[in-house]
Amino acid sequence: MKEEIFQNALKGASKWELQQMEGCSAAGVKIPSWAYIEGLWWPVRLSMEQCSSEAAASYKASVVKGFPRRGKFVDFTGGFGVDFFFIAPHFSKAVYVEQNAELCRLARHNFPLLNLRNTTVVEGRMEDVFPEIIGEDASDVVCLIDPARRDAAGRKMVGLKDCTPDVTAVVPRLLEKGAGVMLKLSPMLDITAALRELPGEWGVHAVSVDGECKELLLVSGGREIHAVDIQHDKVSDFCLNDKSQLQPRTKWADRVGANLYEPSPSVLKAGLQDALPGEKLSKESHLFTSDERMENFPGRSFRVDGVSGFSKADVKKLLAGVTKANLTVRGFPMSVAQLRKKLNLREGGDVYLFAATLQDKSHVLIKCTKI
């Protein structure tokens, strides 16, 4: 499609036409159920990059079903409307709010084509419009807020007070009126610090899509912690029902067993690694091992083919015949690039190598096959 866009540019296609072709191409990967709907209008590249994927939006829709009352849904930071599209059908009424006039124009055009009913598009800033939209009694209202994470100079902001709108000022007023609130936040955010800035209890959902942590969701009224992994439309959820149940791990593996496990990015982001089964190699490594195979581990699973120290003789024996490998470091004093150069290995292949530090501070190289 990029080649087609380039060729059309040479032929004098307008900026709008190029935008539509590029947006439709991106949607084929990110929002596949929209890609072949005739007549949809697509936004500029930045809006396409920032919008939720279909998989992440579908997960948010499943979370919203947990709110006890769902009369009206309000998306106060509507963007391109992907989250709105998947969540709105679960409510009697839905309101899309967006301060960007062009995105509002696209929403008014696209929503009828997407068969969204009983919806209203409101152009404006959340801070200005929410009192009228919410009213005095919001006990049957659920709100989604995805605050902007860049300042005027384009720098990424990770603190709640640094985002726009400032949810630390707005959310308490919504909760006082009885509204349910879901915050969609940067995965770079410090969860503990964010929870300290918000009143009441909040459930935590760290959401990974295709192996990358994409979103951090905070849901009002909850206490549970979810590490969610979405792979090819399959959703796995490693959940702790109450944060208070999480106890720091105090025992460590005395050796590398027959199997090795690497927690998913969402597990690490949610801070649930100490709740995982198996024995942890060390406090710093975030790798787990067992002699018996553990099914459904929330992350990647490997069969251990060999373990060595880092003497030249040990490494030469472990890597005999290996010219390329997938290399990971965990709690190790070298970067992947540094170690790859030291081992003289190309990237890729079927061999997986983990360089890790054990609890006794010794360094090991673990050769694995992915299960």
What does this 3D model show about the protein?
With 371 residues, the protein is of the alpha/beta class. It folds into 2 domains: 47-243, Rossmann fold (3-Layer(aba) Sandwich); 259-370, no CATH class. Helices cover 29% and strands 28% of the residues. The protein contains 12 helices and 16 strands. The protein has helices at residues 2-10, 15-30, 45-50, 54-64, 82-87, 101-113, 126-134, 167-176, 191-196, 265-270, 312-318, 336-343; strands at 72-75, 93-98, 119-123, 141-145, 180-185, 202-209, 212-220, 225-231, 234-240, 259-263, 279-280, 288-290, 299-308, 324-330, 346-357, 363-370. The strands form 2 sheets. A 9-stranded mixed β-sheet has the order 3-2-1-4-5-7-6-8-9, sandwiched between helices. It has a 7-stranded mixed β-sheet with strand order 11-12-10-13-16-15-14. The longest helix has 16 residues, at 15-30. It is globular. The mean pLDDT is 92.
